[in-house]
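Human:
Care to share another protein and its fold?

Assistant:
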Amino acid sequence: MISIFIISFISSSWTKNGGDWLNLTTIQNAYQHHHAELASTQVETAICEPGDLDLIINKASDDPHNQYKLIFVSDHGAKAIRTLNDLPSNVEIIWSGHQLVAGWELLPVNKWYLPEHSLPISDSHHLRNMVPLPGVITPGYKLSGHATDRERTTSPYTKEVIWMLSGDARKDVADDSALIDSWLLLKPDYAEKVVQIMTENSVFNDAQKVSIVNSPRTGQWEILKDSSIFSAMRLGKTGYHSKPLNLDSNIDPITQSAQLAVSTHLPNATIDISHYWREEPSQKDDPVIHHSNYNAKIDDFLQNPKALLLIPGDSVTEVSKIISTQHCIDHRHKVFVVLTDTMTPSIASWIESLYSQGYFGAIEVRSDREPSLLPVRDASAEPKNILLEVKQSLDSAATLSNRP
């Protein structure tokens, strides 16, 4: 009996509830389910660190009758793949991520898993080995462990607008350098356009509270001042997320512009700023503490029938959560994706396609468009099950390979 070893590579420094971990284990689970259904194979899985890679390749070389499927994710995985040379024929290299990395064409990858908006447009050779997914691998929005209906019944629901901010998105196929060409920075003036839409449309009437939720990407980079006209434009990391919110000395310009726009045009609404920040540990080996009200605000939306949710179009993870969550689809008239200039053309096309399928409403604030609110379309939208999509692609490939 042939044995199939499905081995995922992930660093011990990554958080197990982070996007990379979820991406990796979802692909591994799909492969395990697919091969476990084949009576003639025995399946074994493992999660290893890149330091074990050479040992596993050597084992595969000495074991030519069995198959080894090695799964890597994101930039970390690409770095490990670049170290591989002269792979034995029984080793398959699998990569998954939100978008392609710089220099991806040179990687010895047999199978790529990518959101459909990240596929290369004209590379027909590589496209044959790429599986398009309907979005980023995500479990969707769900209540956190401490949220219960009982907690909400003691006070009446208020009409709350939960506004998630974006910013500092990395461009397609760019590296993580500090060059400005690798990044798309959200301009603070977009907040004024969003609030203008809110004041002009009845769906936002009588909003009693606006919760502004920033993230690790909001205001993370700023353009460095350089007197030399010949040097490449560079960015510097800001310190906004290294300490708690202070409205006088530690509020990033994106969040500040949202606060100003709300206070100016919606003076009767209470403003709540949810500031993300990282607290360094007191002991050297202790983990960094991440402070965020993100989960609490998602709980508010999922439980409050009066709450409205605004999410950034360039945050493909957040959009993927919407299209994967039954609650959001059931209440899609209360969900609005903000279409901004930081969306790449491929992301914009993906968002517009999902909008046309009736997954959410939209707020248009791109500089080349007239600011407007686009109500949700009357369509029959179903949750996207990305794990199932991966497994179906494997089943389909196996069926084709078995045809006479």
Q: What stands out?
A: The chain has two domains: 2-135+386-401, 149-374.
